[in-house]
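Schema walk-through. Below, the input block comes first and the output block second. Nothing else is stored per chain. Lengths vary across the set, and this one has 165 residues.
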Amino acid sequence: MFAFLPATTAYSQTDRPISLWLSILDLWSPAVKLGLEYQLSNNMGLAGVFGSGSINGKGMLEVGAQYNYYLTGNFNNGLHVGSELLFTNVTGTRTGYNTSFSVNAIGLNPYLGYKYSSRYGFTAILQGGVKCMYATADFVGRDFTSSPATPQAEGLLNINIGWSF
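--- output ---
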C-alpha cells in the first residue's frame, strides 16, 4: 500500500541551526541590511540585524534583533510570528543652510512571515507587519531645534534571501 508514496529525505532540525540573510529591498536605497538567525529550539529563532548605507543621500545605520516563533513547520521551513526591535540613526547636512541633523528612531515591529530553506541551504524569508516607531530629530546650525519623541506607524515588508547552514 505504501509502495507508491514518493521517497523524501527528512533532516533533523539541527542540520541547519543558523540562517544568514540579506534584505533585497534595502539594496534600492542603497543600503545593506544583514541578519544572522540562530535556532533556539525546534520552533524558535533569535536574529541579530545590522544595516548601513544611505537614505536619500544621508548616512544611515540600523542595529537590532528579531525573535521568531514558528507556528507551523520548524526553524528551517514554516510560518512564523515575530517581533523586531530596531534602532535607526540617519545623519546628514543641508547645504546652503549650514545645518546638520541627526534623526534617531527606535521601533518595536510585529510581523507575520514565512521562511523556506531548500535541502541545499538556500533560504528565502518573507515578512509583513507594522513598524511602530518613536523618532526624535536634532538640528544644529542657524536655527537650533530639537523635536520631542513622536510616535509613527507604517507598513513593514521584509524580503530576505540567504543561506542556512
